[in-house]
Amino acid sequence: MEEFEARGRVRDHAFRDQGITFSLSGEERPFPLDLVPRIVPRHEWETIEAGVSQRVLALEAFLADLYGNAEVVRDGVLSRRLVVTSSQFCRAAAGVEPPNHVRIHVAGVDVVRDPEGRYLVLEDNLRTPSGISYVIENRRAMTHVFPELFASHRVRPLSDIPIRLLEALRKAAPPDRNDPAVVLLTPGVANPAYFEHVFLARQMGVELVEGRDLVCRDGVVYMRTTEGETRVDVVYRRLDDDYLDPLQFRPDSLLGCPGIVGAARLGNVAIANAVGNGVADDKAIYPHVPALIRYYLGEAPILDNVGTYSLEDPDQLKFVLSNLDQLVLKPVDSSGGHGLVIGPQASDRTLAALPERIRANPRN
Questions:
Q1: Residue 198: which residues within 8 A CB-CB, separation 6 or more?
Q2: Which residues share a beta bridge with 228?
Q3: 210 with 257: CB under 8 angstroms?
């Protein structure tokens, strides 16, 4: 036990020395890493990999359809009301066709395992998912803390992730750009995931920029440098739609670049992930993803969803209100765990306030 605790201290020191932290309630904390590894055998990983790939392909097709001809609505797979009442449904994205037809360049698909050992998808994150850097740094830390584990087991490497991400971003550039310029757009140092923004920009060898470093002129995005303005072809943005373009969304935003959505509409710049992706990870859309897989791919889902209740259905609403202390409730338009209520762990005061909130807006 003493040796295990000593190795835990080695882990914490390594994270602090490298600045691998996250912000919680205004306090910078080392990223949590369990020293007991969760080993996924090859045959299980192949199932996860195939299931996640299938899911992302279906959601990619859904986004292209929804912001195009919306046949999914016309064919009755999803109701128009369900789609347009999503706070993440983005009319500004209608008709915007990415240069290589990819909207989901990075997906954060949360997977859990049930008591029977089945892997299930808990939720999809398709807006600005984070965590890649922590995965890489966790692995690096583990090789220092438990080098014997990696000497005695065949563990799949992770070090090529930034290279693969850069390759995906460069492939998203307008087709006439032979040597596309990629930048990573960050909200700034106050963002909880700023460590990751710096890490990925450094690992990919691209410029880390803020909105004030970019300017859009004549439908083309440029980056201000000490040597003058240079054209930007791909913006890997790590800020939400609302703050990306004050001409399209929040006019008071100082974090984005005015005109960038218009440049994307003209095909002069690629935005990764694409504007409007949030409608596909709306928690009210989530129960319908298996149907979307069947509709777009003609396949049975490889990974099932976690059992989920739609609170706009009166019978399901009644059941949930009677079992709040046994269920997990999520705001449908949130990400990163914001607004999450875990019933078995919630206080009586929190549970008592839920029914009024739910009845006021079941769709949410």
A1: 208
A2: 225
A3: no
